[in-house]
Each structure stands twice: as structure tokens, then as C-alpha cells.
Amino acid sequence: MTDAPTDPPPQTRRDLLARIGLAAGGAAMYQAMTALGASAESTYTGPIRLEGDARNASVLVLGAGVAGLVAAIELRKAGYRVQVLEYREKAGGRAWTLRGGDRFTELGGATQEVRFDEGQYFNPGPWRIPYNHRGILDYAHRLNVPLEPFIQVNHNALVHGRNAFGGRPKRYREIMADYHGGVAELLAKSTQQGKLDGLITKEDGEILIESLRSFGALDRNLAYAKNLQSSDRRGFEKDPGGGLSARPVPSEPMSLKDVLSSRAWAYLASGALTEFQMTMFQPVGGMDQIALAMAREVQDAIRYNTKVVGIQQDDRGVTVAYEDTGTPGQVQQARADWCVCTLPLSILSQLEVNVSAPMANAIQAVPYAASVKVGLQMKRRFWEQDEAIYAGISYTDLPIRMIQYPAHGYGSRGKGVVLGAYAFGPYAYEFTALAPEERVRRAVEWGSQLHPQYKDEFETGVGVGWHRVPWSLGCNGIWTEATRRDHYDNLCALDNRIILAGEHASYIPAWQEGSVTSAIDAVSRLHRRVVSA
Amino acid sequence: MTDAPTDPPPQTRRDLLARIGLAAGGAAMYQAMTALGASAESTYTGPIRLEGDARNASVLVLGAGVAGLVAAIELRKAGYRVQVLEYREKAGGRAWTLRGGDRFTELGGATQEVRFDEGQYFNPGPWRIPYNHRGILDYAHRLNVPLEPFIQVNHNALVHGRNAFGGRPKRYREIMADYHGGVAELLAKSTQQGKLDGLITKEDGEILIESLRSFGALDRNLAYAKNLQSSDRRGFEKDPGGGLSARPVPSEPMSLKDVLSSRAWAYLASGALTEFQMTMFQPVGGMDQIALAMAREVQDAIRYNTKVVGIQQDDRGVTVAYEDTGTPGQVQQARADWCVCTLPLSILSQLEVNVSAPMANAIQAVPYAASVKVGLQMKRRFWEQDEAIYAGISYTDLPIRMIQYPAHGYGSRGKGVVLGAYAFGPYAYEFTALAPEERVRRAVEWGSQLHPQYKDEFETGVGVGWHRVPWSLGCNGIWTEATRRDHYDNLCALDNRIILAGEHASYIPAWQEGSVTSAIDAVSRLHRRVVSA
Q: Within 13 A of B326's CA, how many CA atoms are on the CB side?
């Protein structure tokens, strides 16, 4: 659920730094980002096969989110007796989709009832799947969950800064074309003028100039200028058409100086990161569809409405104390030979668990990210009808940070739910300090700076602050270089009869792929222990 | 159907120049490209409303392709009596989709029978719709034709050059990341070293450097180097994962010198052109779905299997001579007050038509592009399963020029039809000089240089050479700056009682949007004449 590295205007970078407690500049921030491993692929290499005799051993899996479900599916397949304990009334965990009729109560007691129309939905958690997250994709394929493209970069979407261009939104394509063009012109001209002698050979310099012409839509004088070439990147003043009066009229590019000072270039890296390159996916109908399909595979093994309150192991097995959420205070016990615990560390760190000191320290070492998402149902798909924005993301430095348009139902005359805010860190705390209805009201207010239609078209909304969600208390585990070094391996190690899994036990935090690959690694190691015992 | 400007390795540029008969270099080529108007948006501003009394006038529309269908729909709505004459047994013209069981015969008599499985299809003509082609999109929306994203740029697809990197394909993301990184490093370092003094102020230079860090994934020393940052663009040596041993290992970037000399950078501009920016579309089930939905609106007005052999006008109307294709030689006549002729100029220029000299000259002035497309059915979707390539385009400098993977049915275990070749100009002539089965065989042979799986997985294919298609004799009209200047307005003018429409009468050649906007412009002018008469 974190995509901070993608969406960073300079301000967001500071948010990120603030969040991870690093006081440092750009380069250190990059180090921090890669330490977080937030932009990452997967080591998944295909369906696992746990070879060898499971000896009829039993396993308690705690949590029926993606990690718990993968563990349950694979352990069962290998011959284990599996029971899954799940706090909620359904599976999926943070792979959660809200639809009309859903209700949920956050920390503090505020309850939101979702009033979306039939067929409308909103993913407060994960919402997109990169092509290189092969584990979660493979489960989706094998479980016949239909996928459709998720659109990350939309060149026709908006880029907005309060202090950029007088507060008027620009199109992504305008920022992109003018930045590329300006940079290409500068480098091509300085190369041609011999200023780069010593940095590049004459021969390479010639090919470089030729390449920059193509990359930056430069004219014969190596200028990025007002003409049909540049307009074919940034958009025309008057589009070409058919019949008479069809000749296109070029638009006026912005100067590189203006693009640079707007800082809107910060959004251009978004689609270049491996996680946000094409082709990305979403399940048809909502992100919960994959987890729900997984849950169907092990449905009879899942006990819902079950709150874990303690985990004790001895040399022969693991005893988990739990309560039915309907009868709090009445503690019951489940026991098995082994335990795969996928509870978020934000929860696990508050339970009594007898693991070794290194794992206990690791469990306490990982703080959780605050984040907020707001879903807004609009009466009509004005972004498509009025502005030719089909799916994708508009960026802003307002507290809502972005607006995402639905990547399905293109051109339909019905309603649509946009992601009206997605913020981390301080913005998220600010947002969720507000009552839910006020979060929604503010999201509409801020969003109307990008889309004036907002105020007329808004119908109903919902705002989820992850640090107020009782069963996760945060969006994802936050790792730093230091905590990775000191605690990561201890967190992941099989601790006598307990092993942890989840996005927090991976280098792909906040992504379902982290949960999948972590669960596969955990059950593989557990199985090796069982087989070799 | 031309997307030559998108797909140009240097060789293709020369193809383009050869094709349009210009002997010139890079800059002139760009001029030529923009003169062609091949990369263009649309002037469509919403459904037209032809106000005023049509006086019960009658119109003959020649051709039931997109232009003819739009003309028929709008004229009828305005109160005209409309008859459409169509050569083929169905509507759509070049908006054509081939499915199992289809047969077609090309010039020279070779007949191909399409042997694709149920549910598989191939678009030999248009195959994608840009977001800014608002006319064709609006008709699709209004006629409830479901659309799904077309994927143009796929960062995980391949880039292949016979003489680049020892003939081993690279991933698009590797070329992109390493080109951006190399260019950013060069410009950032030369700016920092003061080499650009005079070209940029110190203050702007500082923001420029900061922006280049982000754009090019530069490290703290402004180097594009082997580290997690660059790998997060180009891909990792070992991907991050979950559990133990999950730490990612960075990959080694290519040098800027190697990227430049490979000329693979030429493909990077593809997704930056307005026509190929996100979000693009395709109709679910095949491109013909829009035209067929249009045809249903005016079904009773269309006379199929009708070959136009002559068009004569006088001051009171237009007489069109035609033959039933089943009974060639038996000339019949249709008459109406007006005629909207959408026949390709390649066909129209061979008919007897009494228009003014300027229009007659214009009709003769526009040559037609040769192009070829080959569709190949594969037993399994190995590009997804083996290589994580979901939709999008791989590029090569082999005569096939590209391979496109289907943008639907993601992850399905069934078969798939890839676009196995799409070539213009000399390559297209070479290809279609071959018998159809040989075209397919060659496409498989060449394609196996990108995908060794080709030879095992190929099942059946079909190859369409547009200059051999009897009812179009080419892919699209080719305009130059000179012919635009001398002939375009004469081609589009209402010539007494005849007006032309089609992609050839637009600044958006080879795109359905050219047909839509040209038809709307033509019927609007025709109607004004009728109303003001």
C-alpha cells in the first residue's frame, strides 16, 4: 500500500523522510527508499512443491490475509492438517474491497456505512499488481481470477501544484514533453558546441545528438520549439481533424525554467519504476477477488471472528489462545505442532508470545506506516466525458496527493468511484484526526481544485485511515537500513515451532507479493524442518 | 494503420522516406512525418446536430466503412433518405477483424482461410484507439461497444536489433533506464562542472541537477551506476523477495556508449507521441465491433455486395453505376440528390467520375501505402507464462518489425494470437511478394529470433498485404507537404453534388478518427448547402 516512491513531489519526499525518521537530503532519501525495498520485484519462480512426508503434522495459521491463505493452501497440499484463525468475518486482510452495504468500525468507534451503488467499489488497501509480481499473479491465474489492466501513468491526467503555474493544473503530457524537450535541447546544444569534450567522444556525441532529436522532439536547429513535432508530444493548440479546416495548430511549450521551478518533473519518474511500469493489473471487480478465491480453496479450514490473544510454544507444539469476537473475554485454546503467524507486527507486538529474544526484539522493532485513502462516488464519469481522462492518476501537492480514476467501465454512462485521496505520514494523521464524514468533505473540497465538477457530481464517500483499522493498526511495516541489518533475519527465522510471514517479513513491503513470497519461503523452511526431523 | 512514426529504428525512417519519395535526412523526415499528419489528435467536439430542414433530400453513401457509416447515421438523423452501397458482404471496411472460418481472396487470386480457434481474432487493419480520438470513442460509447485498454508500451517487452548486443534481445526497460540514466548523468555532471554556463543560470542548474537525479536514478555522485536505484528502473539481477535470502541484488547497467550505438533508443519515443500515450483502447472482441455497431444503426439502408463502377453527377443529382458482385457485368444504377463518396482514392481514381478538374487532380495525387500484417495463433501464451510479457509490443529491425501480444485474456491457459509482423514500404512489398503461407512461415522464422518458443508453439496464421486487398489497394492515402498544399482542399470541397470523406480526406490519415471527423465535416457542409439552397 505504500507507493511513496512513485508519487513524490518534493513535499512527499519530506513526508517519507519524516516517516522513517531520517534527517537527510535527496541522495540519502534514495538510499532510504531502496532500504525500504519499496520498489521491488519478486523472487517467485513458479508454484512450489513441498516434497517429502509431512508426517500428518498440524499447523495453526494465524490470519487469513494473503500470506496466511498462501501458507494454508501450500501446507495442505503438502499433507499438513491446517487450521486458520481469522479475526474478521471474511478473508483477505488488507486486500480489502468496500462495496455498498459494507460497514466497518475504526479505532475510536466511528462506524462508516458504505453507500456506493451496485457494481461500484473501492480498494482501501492494495489496488494494483505489477507484471513482475509473479507470485500473486500466478495465484490469480491458477484460481481463474480475471485480471484487467491497471493504468498507472495517464498522459492526459493532471499534474497540479498549489504554487505551480498559478495553481492551474497541467496535463502530464505537457510536463513530460516540455521537460524531455528542454533537457534534450540543453544537452544536444552543449554537445554540439563542444562543451562536453572530455565527457563524450565526438563519434558518440553525434549519435547522442541524433538520439536527443528523437527523445526530445527537437527541430533541425536542435531547439525544442513551438511546432507540430513538439505538439505531437505535448498536445496541439488545435487538433488535426478531417475535411476542411482540419490543419493542426501547434501549442506553445513551457520554458525549461518554468518546468524546473514548478517541480512537477518529480512526478515523471512514477511510471519508470519497475513496480509501476506497464503492464500492471487489477482483478476484475475489486482487489479482494484474489484473496477470496484463495480462501475458497481452504474454506473449511478457516475459523472467522476469532481474535488471537496469546501464543505459547513448547518443545512439542504451539498453543494459541483466542476469543470469539462475539463473546469477548471467553478465552479458548487451539493447539498444533507448528504455527505460521501472519498477524501484522503492529498487532503481534501487543500480544504475549514466547519466542526467543532476537525474534521478540525484531517484532518490536518495526513501526507501522500511517496512511489514508478516500473513495468518492460521483454521479457521472466527468473525467472521461469532459476531459478525456480514462483511468490513471492525477497528482497534486494538496493533502489528497492524488486522484485516481477507475480502470474499468470505460465510457459507461453510469457512476464511478474515484480514489479521492491517498496520503502517507503527516497528511494521513491530519486526515484521520477528522471524523470520517469530514475526511470525505475535505477530499471533495481539495479535489475540486483539480476538477471543478467535483462539487456537483459528488454523491457519497468513505475514508479509511489504516492506522485506525483495529486489525492492522497501520498500512505496512516500515524498515530502515538499520532495522533490516539488526532484525530482519531474526524476524524471519523459524523460532522453534513458530514462523512469521507477511509483507513485514519481506523486501517487498506493502505489496501482496511480499506476503506471497514470504509465506512460500516460510512454509518451505518449516517443511524442511519437519521432513528432516 | 500507419504507425511508422512510432516504430522507427533508423531503418524504418528510411523506409518512410523511401515511401513518401523524399530524399532527405532526419530533420526533413520529421517535417515529412508531421506533413503526413500521421501523429495526430482529433477536432471532434461531441455529437453533431444538423439543424434545419433536409427537405426530404436523398443521399447515396458509397462505402460502409467507418466514414460511410458515420455519414449515413448522421444524415438519416437529420432527415435525409440515405442509401449505402458497399462492395463487401459486410460493413467496416478496413476496420476488419479476422476470425476462424473467415475466408478472403487477395489480388492475384490467392485465398486464405482463417483457422483460428473460437474466441481468437486478429485485426489486420486498425487495432488501437488513442484517448484523444474522441470521435470514434464517442461513437463506441454511444453504441455501447465495450472497450478495454490497448497496451502500446510494455516495459518488459523486447527490443531486438540484428547488430545490437550480439543479436540478443534486451528488455524495453533496460534500454529506457540506461538511456535516461546515461543522458541524465552526462547533463548533470556537465552542469555541475560549469560547462553549461551561459546556457543555464546557476539557480536553474541546481534544480536541473536535482530533477536529473530523479529522472535518471543518479546516485549521490551524479552517476548512473550499478545499485538498487538503477535496478529499480532497469530490473534487478536478483529480485527482492520474502523471508530469508530475500535481499535484492542489483544488475549491471549498459554504458551510454553501448546504448547509443545499438540505436535501440529509437524505440523509446513510441509511447511519447500523443497517439500512443496512455490510455489507449481496443473494442472487446475485435476492432470491427464499433463499425458493426454503427452498421446496425442503418442496417436497412445498406446494400452489400455492390461494386460501384461509375459516378456521374448533373445539376439535379448523382447517378451511381454499380454491379452486384455475384453478377459482374450487369450494370445497374442508383440515383440520389447528393453523394458522399468514401471509396479509397486508390479505387476511386480508377473509376469514371465527373467531378471538377481540381478534385479530379486531387483524386489522382494521393498514392497509397503498402503494408502487411501477419497474425499467428500460438498453442499457449508463452510470452506471459515464460517471460512475464503481458500485451504490448516488442520491436525488432527484422522485416517483421514488431510482435504484438494480445491485450485481453491475460493469464488464461488457452491459446493466443500475436501480431507476428507489421511492416510498411519495401518490407511490405517483399513480404507480400510471397505466397500467403510463405509470409506466415517467414514471420514464424524471424519471430523465433525474439522468442525461441515460436517454432514449437505456432499453429496457424494469416497474412494480409493491404496493397493486395482488392477493395482498398493499400493501407492509407499518403500525403506530403506538397500534395497537402496543392490538393487537399480541392479533395475535400463539395464538388457540385459530390463530397468525399474518409481517412484520406483528413489530417489523421490511417486512423478511424480521420474517417469519423472527415465524415462529420463532409455531411455538415453538405447539409449547410441543402439548408441554404
A: 4
Nearest residue, CB atoms, A131 vs list B220, B228, B390: B390
Question: Which grid cell is B253?
Answer: 547497467
Residue in B39, B279, B522 closest to A151 by CB: B279
pTM of the model: 0.92
Q: What angle (nearest 5°) sits at the alpha carbon of residue B468, between those of residues B466 and B474?
A: 40
Integer Cα distance of B139 and B133 in angstroms: 11
For position A42, what pLDDT does the model report? 60
Taken in order A267, A273, A276, A280, is the CA torsion positive or negative? positive
In which region does residue B276 sit, left (phi positive, over 0), alpha (psi from -120 to 50) or beta (all else)? alpha
Condensed to tens digits (0 to 9), the pLDDT of residues B98-114 reads 999 999 999 999 999 99
Q: Are B383 and B418 in contact (CB under 8 A)?
A: yes
- Cα of first residue to Cα of last residue in chain A, in angstroms, is 38
* Partners of residue A322 on adjacent β-strands: A308, A332
Dihedral angle, C-alpha B342, B346, B352, B357, nearest 10 °: 90
Do B410 and A204 lie within an 8 Å CB cutoff?
Answer: no
Mean pLDDT, range B451-471, rounded to an integer: 97
How far does the CA of residue A494 sit from the closest CA of chain B (Å)? 10
- Which residue of A3, A13, A30, A143 is the best one to mutate when testing the B interface, meaning the one whose CB has the most B CBs within 10 A? A30
Calculate how close chain A gets to B131, using CA atoms only, in Å: 6
Are the C-beta atoms of B288 and B136 separated by less than 8 Å?
A: no
Cβ neighbours of A5 (radius 10 Å): 23
Chain A residues near residue B266 by CB distance under 8 angstroms: 211, 214
Which residues are registered as beta bridge partners of A336? Answer: A318
State how far the Cα of B374 lies from the Cα of B325, in Å rounded to an integer: 27
